[in-house]
Design a protein that fits this description.
Strand content: over 45%
Oligomer: single chain
Structural class: alpha+beta
Shape: globular
Order of helices and strands: HHEHEEEE
Distance between the termini: 33 Å
Length: about 120
């Protein structure tokens, strides 16, 4: 069985660096997000991530913890971000993301801003 907690860390480490090569291995062909409107494929995940990275500069990223079993895996992570093209101070935010696993791949996502 795949170590999905490690796979989730890999997903965020790579995609926040604009490296999406892991998606074929990690995302089910029927992947969809239940919280991100319009995110119904790996391609939509890429577009959403690129839009986020265009809007915000990620100054720091830290995985606080992961958890999971054979059907679900989650990650709680902290980010320090700064809006691009703005003179605002950086903000700290915490986010939790959870994924349902099917056929040894991530098939469904739920994201929750935690603070």
């Amino acid at each position: 069985m795949k170590d999905f907690q490690a796979a989730l860390k890999q997903l965020y480490d790579e995609t926040l660096s604009k490296d999406f090569s892991c998606l074929d291995e990690l995302f089910h062909p029927e992947y969809r997000s239940s919280t991100e409107e319009g995110e119904d494929s790996a391609e939509a995940f890429i577009a959403g991530t690129l839009a986020l990275l265009e809007q915000f500069e990620i100054l720091e990223s830290e995985v606080l913890f992961t958890l999971g079993d054979a059907s679900y895996v989650g990650i709680v992570h902290r980010f320090k971000v700064k809006a691009r093209n703005a003179d605002e101070s950086p903000i700290d935010t915490v986010r939790a993301d959870f994924y349902r696993i099917q056929d040894n791949k991530f098939i469904e996502h739920w994201g929750v801003p935690a603070g």
